[in-house]
Amino acid sequence: MITRRVMRPLLLALTLLGCRQPMDSPVRSAPETVWEDYDALLQEVVTVDGYVDYDALEANRKPLDALITWFGEDRLWGRANDRGAIWLNAYNAFVLFAVLEEGRPASVHDVEGWLPFEGSGFFYEKAFAIDANRYSLWEVKQERIRLRRLDFRVHAAMSDGAMSSPPLKQGVYTGPGLELELGAQMRRWVNDPKRGVRVSDDGLQFSPIFVDYADDFWRWGGERSLCMNLAPYAEAELRIRLIEHDKLGCPTPTFDYDWSLNDVSHRDDDPQPP
After folding, report:
1. Which listed site, 130, 173, 255, 273, has its alpha carbon 20 to 30 Å from 144?
2. pLDDT at 215 > cutoff 70
């Protein structure tokens, strides 16, 4: 994981050199129903298990394009009560928009960039308009969501466009309902044997996200270990396994993160990985 201290100067240099690619919508003005339209679109193109039907999204992308336009129309700060939910929606919408604009790559890591590391072209070098500013996906995630919300559950609410990303929500996040929605997303993620916590005869394996952001779960979780922070969101059998695993010190072996595009056509219908 690239640290914030290292990434900020790199992003500034890219901006000064004109190397960041503006990601602008073809829609000139967002309709008043933009959020209702986008919510309906997500219900149509996101599957029950949180993958994306990109064929359906590309065929009916206008609500997504309109929302990208809305973010750049100086409206965000007029909805202070919804700001946390709006940033989460922005992150996920920007990912979907960038995937379409890049021609639906086999993996978001395939998008080429200037910086010499995987994911640079997609996560660091695209610049999305919000109000009068432009942000990369990295900046939205790290500076506008993680470090403002201080809640480990936000990791369950952001999809990086990868098969191993947490399940995408079938609808938008809302300001009044955000607490319940984050809890529901954590339960979906933790209990997903492909993307959350896997159980095998050899023990437990965890999503690499839990390890990459271990400090978030430790600082903001309130419990003494990752296992005990995840246990309240786990179903009965998994909860027992997590509690038992905690007695061993909660070691965190991880499974390989699948960065291929989270397209429903790529989904393996076997509910339990080998």
Report:
1. 255
2. yes
